[in-house]
Amino acid sequence: MKNINIEIAVTHIITRKKQTLVAALGVTIGIGIFLFMNSLSSGFTKYSKGEIFKNNAHIKIYKNDEISMPFMGNNDSSNSSQVIINPQVTTLSKKIINPEELLKKLKNQTYVTHAIAQVNFDVFYNRGKAQIKGNGIGVDMIAYSEMFNTQKYMVAGNVKSLQGNLNGIIIGRGISEKLNLGMDENITVSSSHGVVKVMKIVGIFDTGNSMNDNQKSYVNLSSAQQFIKEGPSYVSTIFVNTPNSDKSANYVPLLQLLTPYTVEDWKTTNADVLSGDKIRNTMLGAISVSILIVAAFGIYNILSSTIMQKINDIAILKATGFKGSDVVKIFVFEALVMGLIGTIMGLILGSVLIFIMSHVYMGGPVGYFPIGFESQLYITSFILGIVITLCAGYFPARKAAKVDPVEIFRK
Amino acid sequence: MTDRKIVLSTKNIAKFFYEPVKFQALHDINFEAYEGEFLTLVGKSGSGKSTLLYCISTMDTAYEGEISIKGKNITGMKTDQLAAIRNENIGFVFQFHYLLPEFSCLKNVMIPALKLGKYSHQEIEERAYQKLKILGLDEQALKPASKLSGGQQQRVAIARALINDPAIIMGDEPTGNLDSKNTAIVFDIFKEISKEFGQTIIAVTHDNDFAKASDRTIELGDGKIINHKKVFE
User: Fold this and answer.
1) CA distances from B204 to B98, B208, B226 (A)
2) Residue A66 DSSP one-character state
3) Number of domains in chain B
4) Do residues B166 and B199 touch, judged by C-beta distance below 8 A?
5) Which residues in B lie closer than 8 A to residue A322 (C-beta atoms)?
6) Could you give the CA distance from residue A195 to residue A64 in angstroms, rounded to a whole number?
7) Residue of A nearest to B57 (CA)
8) Closest to A320 (Cβ–Cβ): which among B96, B103, B115?
9) Is residue B146 a part of any domain in this protein?
10) Mean pLDDT (chain A, rounded)
């Protein structure tokens, strides 16, 4: 059996289709824009995170500069004078001692998905008189590619061809173009330690980031160690990946227990990029919520005017035994229907906007705009749409519930 | 006469208005209404007759004194309890019909019964038809309330007041907007209801013919009962 409150509400809605639609349309636009804007910012955040993880692992372990401790004098003899020395960087080497064992220990941790060692060095790429400054990275290329998905950005050659090829090098597209060197050609690489090698180009990558493409090159770990005149145990950084990049900070203290070196998660390293993301998300969030509030006022207005017009009906309902809570239910139900129609149409509108946006070509390394349909955002938008319309409906409904029938009948 | 059941009684009802200035609208009103009685409240404008009606209607709770309906003291009850009491025990007919314009006549009659929820939807529909038939409106049942003539609308409103078989039917100038023909119809209906179904009618009116023909008339002046005429058959 249908509830009489709902029956009255439904009749009101059916007999006032146009007003219901106008109120719903406000919600439609609000929710549509809300969903679209949040998808925009979520898509872009994902993209920029992806950009970060092209070069950064979730956690990196490296030897930080050590600062000399000032000499504070003896505490036991009271009349000795204190000597203060200017603190200075005392790091002699950025070397991580016994990296093999550390790597082994790291790989044994259940929360570590990948762990690799890396050697960084500064280089000049030469061809005849032409010279480009850059930086070389010595890694186990296959493991590195698994971690950073380098293979995806290879435009020529394969990351596997570096394996066991001590004379091979993978260079960025920018270097290749500037020096006019292609696959299988030789490139002269000289390190800041004065080591010069002629290496064979076995691969070219293009990440879309000019900093990378114009400067970076990959060689074998042992080649890199030769470039800086270090032994096979030299490693400058260890990269660690965890199952969830958002929770990587939780593992930092655990990893710190395993090693005396500095353990830093990607959020610390990229704090500037992340704070930029945060600002953008806050701005878009503020705009979309404002639009939603405007939509809510639409519902509030239409319901308020409905109640003003129906004040006689409310009075007779109350006279014939409807409680205040019944009147609230009637009008909140009407708001709910408006909200539901509006929200569902809004999700459709948002989807259309997302679809259009995902086909807008942004150019450059970004390609098509990084935006997608995210179920989480659909759920959030839906709940928000309903909650806001309920709030917008509740206040006029409460006003209706407080109508004093005697006042109406005595007029 | 003495063994007639009291349906409604008041004890020392006083009512004050504070806007725009403090003003006592009712002084010490004491009266009883019996089962099956057709009672009219008369008096000049501002005599307090409507004010009294709204106090005993349970809709106005800002009064002093006590009101009992069917032997139960309703003074001081919560508004939700009062709403339930009205729903079950009191039917209203006003000068204006106050029908819900979006609904059919039948639905308008059914709404208080649907609210009460004592019968099934189908039973309520049958009962509503029956009430409309008593009032000679069964053929208009499915028309929207707004499409009827004034007299017909008022009769639908009476059917609505009757749907829950309330003990009391209260009217505030129920014939105030009607021509003499319709007034006569409404009067006959009220007479019939009180005699045949034993329901009590309490109606405010300033139609003297209407009042004269009722069982008993209470005349108010300046918020006091000034004439209490009993009509015995």
Assistant:
1) 17, 11, 15
2) P
3) 1
4) yes
5) 83, 87, 115
6) 25
7) A319
8) B115
9) yes
10) 87
Task: Tell me which residue range forms the domain holding B163.
Answer: 37-55+84-230
Number of residues in chain B: 233
Is the distance from CB of A243 to CB of A113 less than 8 angstroms? yes
- Distances from the Cα of B55 to the Cαs of A195, B37, B170, in angstroms? 106, 19, 11
Task: Please check whether residue A411 touches B, CB under 8 A.
Answer: no
Residue A298 makes CB contacts below 8 A (sequence gap 6+) with A22, A23, A25, A26, A27
Residue A86's pLDDT band, with cuts at 50, 70 and 90, is: confident
Q: Which residues of chain B lie closer than 8 angstroms to A405, CB-CB?
A: 59
Q: From the CB of residue A270, how many other CB atoms can be counted at a distance below 10 Å?
A: 19
* CATH value at residue B180: 3.40.50.300
Could you tell me if residue B95 is inside a domain? Answer: yes
Chain A residue numbers touching B60 (CB-CB < 8 A): 406
Query: Quick check: B115 and A1 CB within 8 A?
Result: no
The encoded tokens of residue A386 equal: 């309903």
State the pTM of this model.
0.79
Strands A168-172 and A196-205, how do they pair? Answer: parallel
Question: Is the minimum CB–CB distance between A318 and chain B shorter than 8 Å?
Answer: yes
CA distance B75 to chain A (A): 17
Tell me the domain boundaries of chain A: 4-52+273-409, 99-266
Residue B68 lies in a domain: no
One-letter amino acid for residue A30 of the chain: G
| Residue pLDDT, tens place only, B166-208 | 999 999 999 888 888 888 888 998 999 999 989 999 999 988 8
Q: DSSP for chain B?
A: -TTSPEEEEEEEEEEEE-SSS-EEEEEEEEEEEETT-EEEEEESTTSSHHHHHHHHTTS----EEEEEETTEE-TT--HHHHHHHHHHHEEEEESS----TTSBHHHHHHHHHHHHT-S-HHHHHHHHHHHHHHTT-GGGTTSBGGGS-HHHHHHHHHHHHHTT--SEEEEESTTTT--HHHHHHHHHHHHHHHHHS--EEEEE---HHHHHTSSEEEEEETTEEEEEEE---
User: Tokens at residue B205, please?
Assistant: 């009116």
Contact present, B217 and B211 (Cβ < 8 Å): yes
Q: What is the ipTM of this complex?
A: 0.92
Q: Worst-scoring range by mean pLDDT, A10-19, A102-111, A168-177, A189-198? A: A102-111
Contact A316 B59 (CB under 8 A): no
Angle at the Cα of B26 (from B75 to B2), degrees rounded to 5?
65
pLDDT at A78: 62
Q: Please check whether residue A407 touches B, CB under 8 A.
A: no
Rounded distance between C-alpha atoms, residue B12 and residue B26, angstroms: 9
Domain assignment present for B214: yes
